[in-house]
Each structure stands twice: as structure tokens, then as C-alpha cells.
């Protein structure tokens, strides 16, 4: 092996770029991590977006996948300043009549509060929660022979179904609404295949690992990962925006935490014609429109469960949520969009001045939509929390264009790095023996556009780095 400036260079310091850099550095290699912004993080950033003293998560906010990640759980991140805080209710789902369903840490408590659907909930979610340690490496990885095939088969038989079909297990509006809110995280119409998978995973994680918020903001996850990486001898350079591979120092392996569109721009000349054609066919999905609020008081939700929850899903019934997601997928803007809301300051006093609060919310919009959805989002919050608007001190909004400007991986506002439907679930970004290899020797993709897709779990970066270790370094 000839002498190079570094053994490996990783471009992009989102959770996947950081995970890739750590995995390589753990093997004693010399690794350089490059970040275009002035701070590391990708989707893990926190800033005073509204008023001084109010700290808002710019992108991701609540982190069940980080808590349940097989890779992150092996790292001593607490020793590097990361503290997770666990709301007493992981997620709540209010209804127009003033009641709410809720995801509690206890499987039995969650089931018992669903009345006639208690047994159905235990039967559907219980095995996934119990099997999560065995399921996680397979679900959060590329398509391959699983170590626990029976557990994965049990999950797959349910997870590959459309969420609306699996909802037939439930009879009550409460269970059906709770289920729909979970499945809608897929950013797909609930009638699409495999939308049940994300719903099952999120419910199971509520019992197996929780839905925590990082004390001090999501930036703390990135800061802890970066601190651990540098403690191993890794090197980070910020303010280094990569537009071409020619900018990079020489290395045996290069891993890019970017989506196919950026990969084509950065490395197009090094890629084969067939691979570039395949990348050009990659599909991006719905975008998001996001609002952050500085609040004088907590959100006055009518249902008490919502006032104890870190996350609140605003969409009322399964039918209403399914209708909104269907309209959005087909290019329309529903009057009542499905809204995902987080209220971190209820559990983390570092987020706002004493006695005051922050809130974070987004809804799905058509890819690249320019429409301002602030009024529609606030109407949905007010619907379930009368008096909410009176508590707003300031707001900050980001549509798809602003999100993409903040993080180029959010193409058209797509925070999943591409559609996560059955056609791109395991073949993202293209159908290849290894989804992390590109057609250029020593060049790898490690972003959420590879399996297992979006979310703060680092597993895309981990698996890409493992592939590079085998291919390039024989480890």
C-alpha cells in the first residue's frame, strides 16, 4: 500500500459521517473528517432561532433510533458529555374530543389504556419490543442473511404490509389513531407497502429504549460523537465545503455522507456511465415545513397525556391522517396536515429562560413546495390546545428550500435522504451487491441514501465503513 496523506477521508459530519469516521478510526487508521459548516452535526444542530436564550433543534429533535442504535450503544458517549432525558410519556396522540392515546414506557400500561385493543396491541408490538436486540442489526442494515431469521420473519410478515391494512388489527379509534401517527413517520401514503415497518419500530422502541431528548439539544449528540472520534486520534476540519474530489487530500478510501445528487456533482467524472444512470433515477420524497416557537408558557393541550409527552402527533383519526398524507404525496397541501410536534423544554430546562418554553413542529409537504404552512400547522396545534397562539412570543420557519440550504442532503426538503418505499428500502441508492460501494475504486457512500435510511442511528455510516475496511484495508 503506497503512502497517502490519510488512510481515509470522510466528507460530511452528520450522524452517519461521524459513525463512519469513528468505525475507521477504531481500527487504528488515520482518518480525516471534513465538514462544510463551521460546526459538526448535519441534522444534529441546535441554535437560538427565535429569541436569545431559546435553544431550538434545527432539524432532528427526539431520538428513539439513537437510543436503540446497536452502534451508538457501544460507544462511551456519556463520558463525552451526552445525557439523554426521558419524558414520562414517549409520544401522545390527541383526538378532537379532548382525549388522547399515549405511548408509555411500559407495554402493559400502553396496552391497558387502549381498552378493547389491549390484547391486539400486546400481540402486535410486544414481540418486536422483546426481539429488538436481535432485530436491530438486521432492520438497521443492508439486505443480508440475518443472525436471527425467525425473529426477522415475524417482523417482516407485519412490517412489509401497508399501515392501513395492519390497522385492521385494531377496533378502537384510539389505537388506530396512535398507530397511524407512528406509521406516518415513513413520509409515505399509509396505503403503501412497508409503511407498517416504521410504525412497529417506533412503538417497540418506546418500550425497548425510549424516545429521549438530549440535554442541551440535538447538537450534543454530534458533539459527543466528535469528541470520542478525536479522543481516538481522529482529525476534524470544519468550514471545508467539498465540491469535487480534487479538493481532497490523498487517501486509500473516501466515504461521502451525501445523497446521489451531490455524489454525481462531486464525483461524476470518476463514476461509470451505468452507475451514474442508476443514480439519476434515484427518487426523493415529500419535503417538510418546520416551525419553531418561543413560548411564554407550555402548550395548553386539552388532554393531560399530551402535557407529559416529549412528542405529540397531531392528526386526529387514522382516516384523517391517511387522507392528509395521500394528498401530500400527490402534490397537494391538506387543510389539516399531519403535524409532528416536540416540546423538549418541558423536560430540559436548558432550552429556554426560566418559566418559558420552546416547541418544535413540522408537517409533510409536496417535494420542494414553496408554500408557507405556518398557519395550517398552528391551526392544528390550536385545535388540540386551545389558547396556544396566545403563548407565542416568536416563531421561526423553514420550508424545503431553507432546509436544503441548511443541509444539502435534504433535497427538496426530504429529510429521509430519498423515498423509503419498498422499491428503495434495501436497494438505495441503486441495486448492487453492496449499496455502499460506488463504481469508483475506494469511493463509498455512507449517507441516509443507503440502508437503512433516514434517522439518527449512524448505521449507514457504520456499515459503509465496515465495507471499506474489508475492501480496502483487508480487515
Automatic annotation (TrEMBL):
Region forming the signal peptide: none
UniProt name for this protein: NAD(P)/FAD-dependent oxidoreductase
Which Pfam family is one of this chain's hits? NAD_binding_8
Amino acid at each position: 500500500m503506497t503512502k497517502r496523506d490519510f488512510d481515509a477521508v470522510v466528507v460530511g459530519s452528520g450522524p452517519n459521517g461521524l459513525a463512519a469516521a469513528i468505525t475507521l478510526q477504531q481500527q487504528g487508521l488515520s482518518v480525516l473528517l471534513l465538514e462544510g459548516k463551521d460546526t459538526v452535526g448535519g441534522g444534529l444542530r441546535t441554535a437560538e432561532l427565535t429569541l436569545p436564550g431559546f435553544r431550538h433543534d434545527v432539524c432532528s429533535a427526539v431520538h428513539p433510533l439513537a437510543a436503540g442504535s446497536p452502534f451508538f450503544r457501544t460507544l462511551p458517549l456519556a463520558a463525552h458529555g451526552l445525557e439523554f432525558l426521558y419524558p414520562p410519556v414517549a409520544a401522545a396522540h390527541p383526538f378532537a374530543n379532548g382525549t388522547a392515546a399515549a405511548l408509555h414506557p411500559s407495554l402493559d400500561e400502553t396496552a391497558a389504556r387502549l381498552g378493547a385493543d389491549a390484547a391486539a396491541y400486546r400481540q402486535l408490538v410486544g414481540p418486536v419490543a422483546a426481539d429488538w436486540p436481535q432485530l436491530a442489526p438486521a432492520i438497521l442494515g443492508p439486505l443480508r442473511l440475518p443472525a436471527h431469521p425467525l425473529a426477522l420473519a415475524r417482523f417482516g410478515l407485519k412490517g412489509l404490509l401497508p399501515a392501513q391494512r395492519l390497522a385492521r388489527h385494531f377496533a378502537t379509534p384510539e389505537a388506530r389513531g396512535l398507530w397511524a401517527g407512528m406509521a406516518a413517520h415513513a413520509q409515505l401514503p399509509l396505503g403503501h407497502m412497508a409503511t407498517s415497518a416504521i410504525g412497529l419500530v417506533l412503538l417497540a422502541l418506546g418500550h425497548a429504549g425510549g424516545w429521549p431528548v438530549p440535554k442541551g439539544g440535538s447538537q450534543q449528540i454530534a458533539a459527543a460523537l466528535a469528541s470520542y472520534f478525536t479522543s481516538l486520534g481522529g482529525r476534524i476540519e470544519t468550514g471545508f465545503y467539498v465540491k469535487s474530489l480534487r479538493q481532497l487530500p490523498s487517501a486509500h478510501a473516501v466515504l461521502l455522507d451525501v445523497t446521489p445528487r451531490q455524489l454525481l456533482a462531486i464525483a461524476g467524472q470518476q463514476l461509470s456511465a451505468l452507475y451514474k444512470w442508476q443514480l439519476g433515477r434515484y427518487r426523493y420524497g415529500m419535503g417538510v415545513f418546520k416551525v419553531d416557537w418561543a413560548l411564554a408558557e407550555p402548550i395548553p393541550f386539552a388532554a393531560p397525556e399530551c402535557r407529559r409527552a416529549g412528542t405529540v402527533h397531531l392528526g386526529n383519526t387514522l382516516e384523517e391522517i391517511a387522507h392528509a398524507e395521500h394528498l401530500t404525496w400527490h402534490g397537494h397541501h391538506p387543510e389539516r396536515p399531519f403535524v409532528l410536534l416536540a416540546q423538549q423544554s418541558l423536560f430540559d430546562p436548558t432550552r429556554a429562560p426560566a418559566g418559558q418554553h420552546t416547541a418544535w413542529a413540522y408537517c409533510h409537504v409536496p417535494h420542494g413546495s414553496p408554500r408557507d404552512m405556518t398557519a395550517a400547522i398552528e391551526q392544528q396545534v390550536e385545535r388540540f390546545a386551545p389558547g396556544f397562539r396566545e403563548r407565542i412570543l416568536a416563531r421561526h420557519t423553514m420550508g424545503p428550500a431553507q432546509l436544503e440550504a441548511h443541509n444539502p442532503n435534504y433535497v427538496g426538503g426530504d429529510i429521509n435522504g430519498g423515498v423509503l418505499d419498498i422499491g428503495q428500502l434495501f436497494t438505495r441508492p441503486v441495486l448492487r451487491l453492496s449499496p455502499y460501494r460506488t463504481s469508483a475504486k475506494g469511493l463509498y457512500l455512507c449517507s441516509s441514501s443507503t440502508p437503512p435510511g433516514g434517522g439518527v442511528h449512524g448505521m449507514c455510516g457504520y456499515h459503509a465503513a465496515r465495507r471499506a475496511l474489508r475492501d480496502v484495508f483487508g480487515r
